[in-house]
Amino acid sequence: MLSHVHIGIRDFDRALAFYAAVLAALGWRQAFVGPERPWAGWKPAGQDRPLFLIGAPYDGEPAAPGNGQMVALLAPSRQAVDAFHATALAHGAVDDGAPGLRPEYHANYYGAYVRDPDGNKLCACCHTPD
What we know:
By secondary structure, this protein is an alpha/beta fold.
């Protein structure tokens, strides 16, 4: 359904360290790093798409998170959601919703929410029963 998602960042080195750790907790692997641009991308293990990209905005203006925007990443298990959340907080994220069931979405929705160091809202979620 998705080819790629691009998240605007202000500090490439900080964002690279953050996303390398957080996406590894979900089993994603780095596809490339281009510090001269600057940008980097990851993809799920064993897949070519979707790509998750970070980088400076193309127009050269400062990156800013949008109100109401969020990127939700599919986690392979509830344990991976927990690892995502803990890793994100350890790497400078702000908690925006601890790991847990969200039965208001559906009976097996298990998710966690954070704001990355640039303020972008991220979620990791698992839809399967424990």
